[in-house]
Amino acid sequence: xxxxxxxxxxxxxxxxxxxxxxxxxxxxxxxxxxxxxxxxxxxxxxxxxxxxxxxxxxxxxxxxxxxxxxxxxxxxxxxxxxxxxxxxxxxxxxxxxxxxxxxxxxxxxxxxxxxxxxxxxxxxxxxxxxxxxxxxxxxxxxxxxxxxxxxxxxxxxxxxxxxxxxxxxxxxxxxxxxxxxxxxxxxxxxxxxxxxxxxxxxxxxxxxxxxxxxxxxxxxxxxxxxxxxxxxxxxxxxxxxxxxxxxxxxxxxxxxxxxxxxxxxxxxxxxxxxxxxxxxxxxxxxxxxxxxxxxxxxxxxxxxxxxxxxxxxxxxxxxxxxxxxxxxxxxxxxxxxxxxxxxxxxxxxxxxxxxxxxxxxxxxxxxxxxxxxxxxxxxxxxxxxxxxxxxxxxxxxxxxxxx
Length: 403
Hints:
The chain is an alpha+beta fold. The protein contains seven helices and 18 strands. α5 (234-248) packs across α6 (292-307) and α5 (234-248) packs across α7.
């Protein structure tokens, strides 16, 4: 029985995808579960599997093409089975990520007949390379045809690019030209632009800020380092403190849903991770129950995989609140934008030395500023302040967090 291969919707925010690579080609036999292609979403590069047995009779989208969700990518069918009806419903192909205008064969069909797929754009005879290697080569101006791959089957992988010379990219311009460049947004950046605009224009934000005495936190961090424990930083303390605070102030652990509010049971904390195209927020499940060491191990693993775009969708869905920590970038304080359906996000700056008054004396203290951005449809000032106070109290008594 004929089967359609379409660009799947692999995340709630996905509207387009890039067909990175075909693993099967026209005429090859495929079985259910075989990897047909690699697809890049706004957050990760994932494998597209076959859901039926047969022969890959037709591929309609070239490697590197960026197409909307639901676009027909190819057809699997028996050797003598007709696929004309499926091809007649094929949407008009779009250009690859390198172009911004459709080719003549990709223009909308006339109204005199049903749309027909255009010819498959020719694929450059480039050597086999992993998606990450292709991306790094493009960023660094490296010609993959000059690289010898050491991966399986001679495939070029990330390590093969380490010693490759990087091409200088000095754009030529005529006298009087500004030298400005226009680049199409990546899938991730386009999604961030859309979602943050929607959040800021539809979610009524308000902000609550507090300052924390971080002296005990710094002292405990140094003590743990001296005892040979895994490296524990402010982020690990913050994640656990936020998980416990979600349970202490459950009003924050909720989402707005039109005419009702959804209260969440688990203390799941998202952690914003910077990647090349923007950021992604993997989720620490049941953060209140984990040890600081477990959180540290989780962060090390998930940050590395997030930067390779190797996270599974379930790893960045379902947070009750998110943490955005810019302290390592010498930021004192800031306010973050909420990511719906979450009702709040905590923005944290760096720990600074300041002159503070203690028992009537001016002393040098170590202070940390935190700002909670809250959705006023779900939260009021008192609930937001209570949550911030719960987090602050745990950071100022950090020994409670190592149990």
